Amino acid sequence: MGEEQKRMLEISILRYDPHIKECKPHIETYEVAESPGMTLYIALNEIRKHQDASLKFDFVCRAGICGSCAMVINGRPGLACRTLTSKMGPQISLAPLPVFELIGDLSVNSGNWMRGLNERLETWIHDKEEKDFTRLEERMEPELAEEIYELDRCIECGCCVAGCGTIQMREDFVGAVGLNKIARYRLDPRDKRSDAEYYELVGDEDGVFGCMTLLGCEDVCPKSLPLQSKIAYLRRKMAEIGWS
Ligand code: SF4
Ligand code: F3S
Ligand code: FES
Questions:
Q1: Residue of 45, 81, 114 best suited for mutating to test ligand 3, as the one with most atoms within 8 Å of CB
Q2: How far apart are CA 47 and CA 45, in angstroms?
Q3: Which of 11, 123, 124, 194 is most buried, most CB within 10 Å of its CB?
């Protein structure tokens, strides 16, 4: 395909650096010539390399694994490195994920939020017995291992948090990401916490009862995790033991 046939993209970006006193939020629009297989991540790199070196955005893996390139793409949270420009119109708008601390432009500190969540929900195996390291690992049924693995695919990108209306009203809401983690540990027979101990963590309005079934989380999850059914599962289990 000749140069002249390349489609021109108009990429409008919400720019703001909260660390610069004179800086005010504003939109800047850049023109980028689309190349075959171009992702938004590639387009942003083109802008930073050839037009504006001050543009801030995050990435690590470029393969949908690290979760750091999440941003609002045409009004919807998603991963820049997994979004092909060929699937979009020529006008594209980008903004940082809401909820998380803004570092600047498209870069947010979701890592800090996720660290706090993991500490709060104690997202690690709680084995109350003395560990015998000479013992072979216990066998797990492949179906169960598969089910746990499915939930472990969360990359902590924050899209589900940014796409949830509840979190705008309840800043301590653990979001679908947090509820998914509790569902994952509850499934794991190596975690010896009791039902009451799990539900102590999420059995309130900042947890399961804060979710208003708005469904945005599952719609935007780039890993297509079954968030809805896991939230429903936790609700059901709580009802079974009469938790209120
Ligand atoms: Fe991202 Fe999905 Fe994990 Fe939410 S549940 S943080 S959207 S991967
Ligand atoms: Fe939010 Fe998902 Fe519940 S969008 S309200 S966590 S169903
Ligand atoms: Fe890692 Fe996009 S750069 S998910």
A1: 81
A2: 5
A3: 11
**pTM of this prediction exceeds 0.70:** yes
- Using 50, 70 and 90 to split pLDDT, how confident is the model at 139? confident
Among 3.90.79.10, 3.40.50.12160, 3.40.50.620, 1.10.1060.10, name the CATH number for the domain at 122-240: 1.10.1060.10
Q: Which atom of ligand 2 is nearest to the CA of 218?
A: 2
Structure confidence at residue 31 (pLDDT): 98
Residues with CB under 6 A from ligand 3: 59-62, 64-69, 79, 81
What is the domain partition of the chain in residue ranges?
Answer: 3-108, 122-240
**Right CATH for 3-108 from 3.10.20.30, 3.90.1150.10, 3.20.20.150, 3.90.226.10:** 3.10.20.30
**CA 104 / ligand 3 centre spacing (Å):** 18
Q: How far is CA 187 from CA 56, 95, 117, 230, in A?
A: 39, 36, 19, 11
Q: Best of 100, 225, 231 to mutate for ligand 1, by most ligand atoms within 8 A of CB?
A: 225
| Confidence grade of residue 12 (pLDDT, cut at 50, 70, 90) | very high
> pLDDT value at position 124?
93
* Chain segment 49-93, per-residue pLDDT in tens: 999 999 999 999 999 999 999 999 999 999 999 999 999 999 999
